[in-house]
Amino acid sequence: LSDTGDDPDERRWAGWMEAAQAGDRAAYEALLGELASVARRFLLRRLGAVDFVEDVVQEVLLSVHRGRHTWDPRRPFRAWFFAIVRHRCIDQLRRRRAATPEGERVPVETLAQDGDADAMGRDPLADGVDAANLLARLAAPQRRVLELTVFQGLPAAEAGRRLGLSAVAVRVRRHRALARLRGWLEADVRAGVRGDRPGDGADGHGAALAGGELDAGDDGPRTGGSRAAAREDEREEPGP
Amino acid sequence: MSDRETTRRQIAAAVASLAPVRRFRPGRLALGWLVLGAGAATIGMVLVQSFRPGAFAELLRHPGFGAESLLGLAAVLLAGRAAIGAAVPGDDGRIPWTLLAVGALALWLAFLVGTLFLPSTPPSMAGKRAACFVEVLAWSVPLTAAGLLLQRRGFPLARRRAGMLAGLTAGLIPAWLMQFACMHDAEHGLTHHVAPVAAVVLVAALVGVGLLRSTRTRER
């Protein structure tokens, strides 16, 4: 029934989800395990190795669980899943300013660049993926506002003081930066739903949508389709 | 406990609590909402005051009024589908329901504005109701509530947008019906039948953000 085309990941996910909707636990476990890896990779590629990637992955899995009855086997699973990923990612970015307590502030420079990767829970296999992340694509003034308000958790007034802007201007800039990120994520998702591959899309950011696993030996055995996707991703990984 | 370990435990908990679900079908639900909602609003309006005499005959006698009504109906149907679809992640992907609804609404409004200059029916006060503005607001309340409750059965990610679409549909139903129930005049239609829809959209967006925060997975 599902519109899966020639995409093996889509076929596999759709099959598992259909079985899960009927109560098949084994299929559901396989699906969630694979989706966690795919979401993690998607987020790492787009946001870099920021400290809240795993939080978003967990929110995504919770949303998949709570919203599983809304997926229709006649519709692409990929579109449904990545709509959740995109929304949860933006939600998390929005929430962080208010939620980041003083003691947990981590400079984004530390997170987005080399630093102590393992201490931050960074996946060594994800090295290099943040070279083309979405934050880096933002205009410098917008990125700076996000760094201060979202990642460092500063109030708009304090961020404004450091940047020489009013609090209102900081909020407006932050809103625009988040809107731009949302737009890029949306474009990525649409490119992935169409089945575009890096190089075919506007900016080559559709790569993670090909699926693939980052954590071999960490989240259990790989399926044949994921191995293929991982190989594909390895070929397409941007160079240093 | 590491973040990855937490994720693994979360997956284990989700798998352990898995139960078969009843699928959320936006097309059917939207159709039911629109048909029952429009039916209930029609009955309510008739109980307050009968529809404008000869309103339905005008559809054939004045093609402009027929076209205007068809555009309005398209806007209502598409808005209804988009509203319930807003409770399904990625529903706008292949068929952009929201865009279609907004497009149809824009065409309807443009047509109504056009009839300010080129009336589609001869000017008349026939059928004028005492409080059509208030009636549109009043009938939209239960329709909005029903729409939001239906959306809660799904999984709306953008709650404000979902609420706005529910309000838009709920406001458009009585606004469109009022074009038959009340006097037909372009200016009156825009100011007394269509304008209240904006207020309904705003209120529904606010209510939607709160009401759609929690949803229920429908297990069999």
Short characterization:
The complex is a heterodimer of chains A (240) and B (220). Chain A is mainly alpha-helical. Chain A has helices at residues 8-21, 25-47, 53-66, 77-99, 108-112, 134-137, 140-151, 156-163, 167-194, 224-236.
In whole angstroms, the N-to-C terminal distance of chain A is: 42 Å
Please state roughly what percent of the residues of chain B sit in beta strands, choosing from under 5%, 5-15%, 15-25%, 25-35%, 35-45% or over 45%. under 5%
Q: How many individual helices of chain A?
A: 10
Tally of separate helices of chain B: 8
Most extensive interface, residues per chain?
A-B, 41 and 35 residues
Radius of gyration of chain B from CA coordinates: 20 Å
Output the radius of gyration of chain A.
18 Å
Structure report:
Chain A has 240 residues and is mainly alpha-helical. Chain A contains ten helices and no strands. The longest helix of chain A has 28 residues, at 167-194. With 220 residues, chain B is mainly alpha-helical. Chain B is 71% helix and 0% strand. Chain B is built from eight helices and no strands. The longest helix of chain B is centred in the C-terminal third of the chain and has 26 residues, at 186-211. Chain B is elongated and about 75 Å long. The mean pLDDT of chain B is 92. The A-B interface holds A 20-23, 25, 28-29, 32-33, 36, 54-55, 57-58, 61-63, 65-72, 75-76, 79-84, 87, 121, 189-190, 193, 215, 218-219 and B 2-4, 6-8, 10-12, 14-25, 87-90, 93-94, 154-155, 157-158, 215, 217-219.
Record the SSE blueprint.
The complex is a heterodimer of chains A (240) and B (220).
Chain A: H1 8-21, H2 25-47, H3 53-66, H4 77-99, H5 108-112, H6 134-137, H7 140-151, H8 156-163, H9 167-194, H10 224-236
Helix pairs in contact in A: 1-2, 2-3, 3-4, 4-9, 7-8, 7-9, 8-9
Chain B: H1 3-16, H2 26-48, H3 57-61, H4 63-85, H5 97-117, H6 132-152, H7 159-181, H8 186-211
Helix pairs in contact in B: 2-4, 2-6, 2-7, 4-5, 4-7, 5-8, 6-7, 6-8, 7-8
